[in-house]
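Note to self: the last two entries modelled the partners one at a time, which told us nothing about the interface. This time every component goes in together.
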Amino acid sequence: MIGSRETSAERSPWWLVALAWMAVGAPLLWGVLTTVAKASALFAR
Amino acid sequence: MTAGLLDKARIIAPAGYNRWLVPPAALGIHLSIGQAYAFSVFNLPLSKAIGVNGSATGDWKLTELGWVFSLAIVCLGLSAAVFGKWLEQAGPRKSGFVAACCWGGGFLLGAVGVRTHQLWLLLIGYGVLGGCGLGLGYITPVSTLIKWFPDRRGMATGMAIMGFGGGAMIAAPLSAALMKVFAGAHSVGVAETFLALGGLYFVAMTIAAFSFRLPPPGWRPAGYTERAAPRALVTQNTVHVTEAVKTPQFYLLWVVLCMNVTAGIGVLGQASAMIQEVFKGQIDASAAAGFVGLLSLFNMGGRFFWASLSDRIGRKPTYAVFFALGLMLYLAVPVTGRMGSVILFVSCFAIILTMYGGGFATIPAYLSDLFGTQFVGAIHGRLLTAWSAAGILGPVLVNYIRDYQISRGVPKAEAYNITMTLMAVLLAVGFVANLLVRPVRSAHFLRDDMAVRA
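The predicted structure of the combined assembly is written out below.
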């Protein structure tokens, strides 16, 4: 689980933490991949 | 009396709360407001809002539209400075919600301005109201994260501020896709896209604002102990925001941020034109757009990388690296141009851009080291006026010097050489300012008997 080292005594469910990270991670990943595809034009000479 | 829905007292975390739920909330806000860096995708469609297929009489000029983004960035700095103190009293939920209202409302008002073709309404909506949403949204998560992550302040704020860099990567393709959907025979689709984005960002930021929790007083992560011998610049005391702005350290960090941002922002705005002019015939517009995309990736990655590294090596050495390495790289850029090496040219700027982003992301942790964590949001807000100043200084320096050199007959490919040298000088100034930072004198610390009044 993310952060389990310092949160071993904490009770927030792991799936909630995973869901929160996915909610922001998915659009960010999409944006990064789109930008990588755009950036590849620099090397496609 | 019961606490209101938005009150600070309402969001004290219960026992068992996982602090790793806070960074996604912070990222949610920063990913939303990071759209600002992608505003340029609207410039061309807005310049033919009347003519639709091409500019017609009465259509806005690109120079007029440039003011929308500039005004938003100026309002970002000003609102962060003005409302930073209020944020510390109100708490992140209330300020995050107000930021959501301003940012979403800014898009709404901007959409009305576009639909009725009134530039002043677009300026007031996106520029002023949206700019206030940017400022409040930018500083809202910072102090909360620092309180939750006293052991990894840099990493925590780096994660959030990375979102500001990443927001444009989502907004640019999303806006282009939405405009394509909404465009028709009588509309370029910008007003409708504004409405859709405003609604989306309002919902995302509201969810994020309501997800914030504050640690109970005295909370420490399990297993965390303060360093027996803390770093020289790290204080365990608190400096009030009104006292912090009386210290030389505040102004030295203002110069540090301003120089670092000026050097990076000037290059960012000219990156596409610069690479095409330096490597004429080798780099076309599509490859140049790829270069800009690559720079945004490094800008975003640098925010997390450098801020996390600063937890290990300290803030002052991190900025010393930014300025020393940046100075060498700026001086190396003309050489790579003369060598005709695209790879070396791109590599230099990629590393420079990591340090541009890193400068933004590491500054809140530097402030909390010097002034304590209690008022860091408010102090950070006031320091962001350095960003507003750099937002004007950077592009003006780069554009003015380039135009001046070209008017004196310097070939376009070499017109950037003096600019690069000037950027290196700015970084040298930043290096000296950073070197002069010393621990804050104890006379500025908040005493126990003053805490109530604060």
